């Protein structure tokens, strides 16, 4: 165990800073071993501070301190004190300039936070607390300053020097050096600081804002990748236009820059005017990127751009308010994607993500409110709850207010808080005032953790012609929260008549019907809603569009789901009905596998598949969602306890094969019909056809008595783009055959020089359902295509094995657990953030059957008991075990 227990930081202890920083001037002389940083901070005591005599305490980590001056006077050694975390100046005047000279070591920085080297490129990552690894500072988001940054570097090796804001000066210096000076006029917290230096290529474009200002757009990449930036650039321009049209928000500097780097802990970072991206979310060419990659690039480019208003112009008061910028910005990027592509398909994708990542988090040992109340390591709180559930909370407000009033609320929010560090309360008050919406009860969503369950009973009274929905909400206990108050839950409902059409909806007390989908507000623990003039018995369509992040149980029978999956006018619920039907079926099949009972064949699902494939009017992208069975992890989650991963795999494979057999003709016809001849285009219409065709392929490949292997091998070798190549290879990777080995080798030979494509090669092998996968992962860990120092490689190989290969990670002998635990411990001293994230794979250990539960907890204990582990890993390990 660690000798010193790390201390938790608590929201209730928030206090305004004792000092403020108005202006920062940084001079950075780049050097791989010792980069020299000369910082001048114009500071004053904070009039709002509750401690007017407090000493000045600056944050700083892994810094070598060379000098401290106040107003030009060097401080004597007893006037200050520096330890591994802080620089304390015992007596500070009311207003002064603090100068420090420090050095840091970018080359040795494997944690990838602060200043580090990514494949020869100097770059920074300062969120959440990386700036303190660059210089001594008040590293907290409520300290906002205007930055001026001068970078000095070798001219030959590092010709491009970038920082936030506008370039004000650049030139040559003696000794082969040069410099650039940047000035960012917008006061910002240190976490939005960025600096980049390297031998970079770039592409350039421009954007004219709604008010007619011209903005230069530049995307910087490692030389040779310039031909992979076009899609990101177009996506950026679409995002800029969209934010003007939908939220009335314009860009505010003369230049907007994006830099793509290959070593990055997360997806991307919204530094003011200088976004830094994981290159996976910038670089795309039809032969190297899949449709899914293109979609992710569009969404993340937009997400980071949207932060300019929700995050940068209005930032967070403290890190507990993280959802203020992240939940809201995810909601904004989801809306953007919905407008650019298919809204129903985007909703389905988002709900899939919520259910697969956020629900397990909210129902497990790491559950925390969307606004957490304490943390040991803030980096552990960039979670699905803060991001995805945070976005759902914004979506619910949007649903309750309607788009027009929501926009009014957002206008008030921007007007009131522009240039400030705000809280969740500020946001809710602004929306509430602007939209004229009472959010008093709604606020509980931010402080209560756990996924509420809504139980619905529908009852038809033929004599009175009424239909009554009785709803009850409950929320199970979560860590630190035994009892929950009732939530305000918006639930959109429709009533589907026997003819498959929506009935007009008239609630008791209303004069006339008002629409065919109504949003009901469930605010009590139990509440009834009665509809009048219901002339025939309907089937209720509940939680249309998934208007709230809850689990819903209704008194519906299998035949009702079959009916809804054919008729529901709400596309989300039509898909949902197919998922409900097929997961019910799968759960009964899992039972049959375990007890040797009779296995069902899913005839109704196969019929639906045939009908959907024959329907020429249906959007192919949506059809692909309709025909895809719930994943093994989804079934495990629904079963919830004593999970038997082998039985789940066997049941799902059996159902897949029987659907393929029953619907073979329709699948074959669709597979032929959906082929696209001509050049690749990433646009949604083409991507949708490929998605459906590839979904057909994955069925046909397992159709009994067919030649699936030949089909998949042909699909792979004839593919004219990465999407189809990957689709073929994915199918082959889980079939033990000669074609599998050949295709993997060919793919490697073709793409071994391309690090991003190699990540796909690693991932596909890590996700294979074949019994030898663990051994292959072990071999690949030693392969030149892998290095533990690159987070994308870690996620591709180890991350996918641990989180996307339920069957093999949970092997009964515990070898999968041991392997991942070993890697967590190996990675922790190098990169604790990524190590802690990997350890998240252990969070559902209590749901497994007894043997695996024991094996998993043993690994968790081994990790928690290891001397010297990071705060990041310590927090996840101990909370998971608690
Ligand atoms: N703020 C980034 C985003 O969501 C995520 C991030 C967090 C990146 C921490 C790096 C470090 O857009
Ligand atoms: Zn974000």
Essential attributes:
alpha+beta; 5-stranded mixed beta sheet; 27 helices; 21% strand; globular; binds phenylalanine; binds zinc ion
Describe the SSE topology:
Blueprint: E1 9-10, E2 19-29, E3 35-45, E4 56-59, E5 64-70, E6 73-74, E7 80-82, E8 86-89, E9 95-104, E10 114-118, E11 121-125, E12 145-154, E13 160-163, E14 166-172, E15 177-188, E16 195-198, E17 200-208, E18 214-222, H1 230-247, E19 255-261, E20 268-269, E21 274-278, H2 291-306, E22 315-316, H3 322-340, H4 343-362, E23 374-375, H5 384-401, H6 403-417, E24 421-422, H7 424-435, H8 444-447, E25 453-461, E26 466-474, E27 489-496, E28 518-522, E29 526-531, E30 539-542, E31 551-554, H9 558-567, H10 571-595, H11 603-614, H12 620-627, H13 632-639, H14 645-662, H15 664-673, H16 684-700, H17 708-718, H18 722-733, H19 738-751, H20 755-766, H21 773-781, H22 791-803, H23 806-809, H24 815-827, H25 832-839, H26 850-864, H27 871-881
Parallel strand pairs: 2-12, 18-19, 19-21, 22-24, 25-31
Antiparallel strand pairs: 1-23, 2-3, 3-9, 4-8, 5-6, 5-9, 7-8, 10-11, 11-16, 12-15, 13-16, 14-15, 17-18, 20-21, 25-26, 26-29, 27-28, 27-30
Helix pairs in contact: 1-2, 2-3, 3-4, 3-5, 4-5, 5-6, 6-7, 9-10, 10-12, 10-14, 11-12, 11-14, 11-15, 12-16, 15-16, 16-18, 17-18, 19-20, 20-22, 24-25, 24-26, 25-27, 26-27
Bound molecules: phenylalanine and zinc ion.
């Amino acid at each position: 165990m660690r000798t010193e227990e790390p201390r938790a930081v608590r929201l209730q202890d928030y206090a305004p800073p004792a000092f403020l920083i108005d202006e920062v001037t940084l001079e950075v002389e780049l050097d791989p071993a010792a980069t020299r940083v000369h910082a001048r901070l114009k500071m004053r005591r904070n009039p709002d501070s509750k401690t007017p005599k407090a000493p000045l305490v600056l944050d700083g980590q892994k810094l070598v301190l060379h000098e401290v001056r106040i107003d030009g006077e060097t401080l004597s050694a007893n006037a200050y004190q520096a330890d591994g975390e802080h620089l304390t100046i015992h007596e500070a005047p009311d207003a002064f300039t603090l100068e420090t000279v420090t050095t840091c070591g970018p080359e040795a920085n494997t944690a990838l936070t602060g200043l580090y080297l990514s494949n020869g490129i100097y770059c920074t990552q300062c969120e959440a607390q990386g700036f303190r690894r660059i210089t001594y500072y008040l590293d907290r988001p409520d300290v906002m300053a205007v930055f001026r940054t001068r970078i000095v570097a070798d001219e030959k090796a590092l010709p491009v020097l970038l920082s936030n804001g506008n370039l004000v000066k650049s030139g040559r210096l003696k000794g082969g050096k040069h410099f650039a000076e940047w000035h960012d006029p917008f006061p910002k917290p240190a976490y939005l600081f960025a600096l980049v230096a390297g031998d970079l290529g770039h592409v350039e474009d421009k954007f004219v804002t709604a008010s007619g200002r011209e903005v230069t757009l530049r995307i910087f990449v490692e030389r040779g990748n310039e031909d992979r930036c076009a899609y990101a650039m177009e996506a950026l321009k679409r995002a800029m236009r969209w934010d003007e049209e939908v939220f009335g928000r314009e860009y505010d500097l003369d230049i907007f820059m994006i830099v793509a780097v290959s070593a990055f802990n997360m997806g991307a970072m919204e530094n003011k005017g200088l976004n830094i991206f994981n290159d996976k979310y910038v670089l795309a060419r039809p032969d190297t990127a899949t449709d899914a990659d293109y979609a992710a690039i569009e969404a993340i480019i937009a997400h980071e751009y949207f932060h300019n208003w929700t995050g940068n112009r209005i930032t967070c008061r403290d890190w507990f308010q993280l959802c203020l910028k992240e939940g809201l910005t995810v909601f904004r990027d989801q809306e953007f994607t919905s407008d650019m592509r298919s809204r129903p398909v985007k909703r389905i994708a988002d709900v899939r993500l919520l259910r697969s990542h956020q629900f397990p988090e909210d129902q497990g040992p790491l559950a925390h409110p969307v606004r957490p109340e304490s943390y040991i390591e803030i980096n552990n709180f960039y979670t699905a709850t803060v991001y995805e559930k945070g976005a759902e909370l914004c979506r619910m407000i949007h649903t309750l207010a309607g788009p027009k009033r929501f926009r009014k609320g957002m206008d008030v929010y921007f007007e009131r808080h522009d240039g400030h560090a705000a809280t969740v309360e500020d946001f809710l008050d602004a929306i509430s005032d602007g939209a004229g919406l009472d959010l008093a009860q709604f606020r509980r969503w931010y402080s209560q953790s756990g996924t509420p369950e809504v139980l619905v009973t529908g009852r038809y009274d033929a004599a009175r012609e009424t239909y009554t929905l009785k709803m009850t909400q409950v929320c199970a206990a979560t860590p630190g929260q035994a009892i929950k108050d009732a939530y305000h839950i918006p639930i959109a409902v429709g009533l589907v008549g026997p003819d498959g059409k929506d009935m007009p909806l008239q609630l008791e007390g209303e004069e006339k019907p008002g629409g065919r989908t109504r949003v009901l507000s469930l605010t009590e623990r139990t509440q009834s809603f009665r509809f009048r003039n219901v002339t025939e018995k309907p089937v209720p369509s509940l939680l249309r569009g998934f208007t709230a992040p809850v689990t819903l149980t209704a008194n519906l029978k299998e035949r009702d789901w079959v009916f809804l999956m054919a008729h529901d006018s709400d596309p989300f619920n039509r898909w949902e009905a197919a998922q409900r039907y097929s997961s019910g079926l799968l759960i009964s099949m899992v039972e049959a596998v375990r007890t040797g009972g009779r296995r069902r064949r899913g005839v109704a699902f196969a019929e639906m598949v045939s009908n959907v494939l024959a329907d020429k009017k249906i959007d192919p992208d949506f059809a692909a969602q309709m025909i895809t069975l719930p994943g093994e992890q989804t079934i495990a989650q629904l079963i919830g306890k004593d999970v038997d991963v082998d039985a789940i795999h066997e049941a799902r494979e059996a159902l897949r094969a029987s659907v393929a057999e029953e619907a073979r003709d329709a699948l074959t016809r669709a597979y032929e019909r959906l082929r696209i001849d001509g050049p690749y285009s990433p646009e949604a219409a083409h991507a949708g056809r490929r998605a459906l065709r590839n979904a057909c392929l994955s069925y046909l490949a397992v159709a009994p008595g067919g030649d699936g292997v030949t089909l998949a091998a042909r699909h792979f070798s004839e593919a004219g783009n990465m999407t189809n190549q990957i689709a073929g290879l994915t199918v082959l990777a889980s079939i033990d055959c000669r074609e599998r080995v050949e295709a993997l080798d060919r793919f490697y030979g073709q793409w071994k020089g391309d690090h991003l494509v190699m990540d796909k090669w690693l991932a596909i092998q890590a996700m294979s359902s074949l019994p030898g996968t663990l051994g292959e992962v072990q071999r690949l860990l030693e392969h030149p295509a892998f290095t533990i120092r690159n987070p994308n490689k870690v996620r591709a190989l180890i991350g996918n094995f641990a989180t996307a290969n339920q069957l093999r990670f949970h092997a009964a002998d515990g070898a999968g657990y041991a392997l991942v635990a070993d890697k967590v411990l190996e990675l922790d001293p190098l990169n604790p953030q990524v190590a802690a994230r990997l350890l998240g794979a252990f969070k559902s250990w209590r749901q497994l059957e007894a043997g695996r539960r024991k094996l998993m907890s043993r690994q968790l204990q081994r990790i928690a008991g290891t001397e010297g582990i990071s705060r990041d890993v310590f927090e996840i390990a101990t909370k998971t075990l608690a």
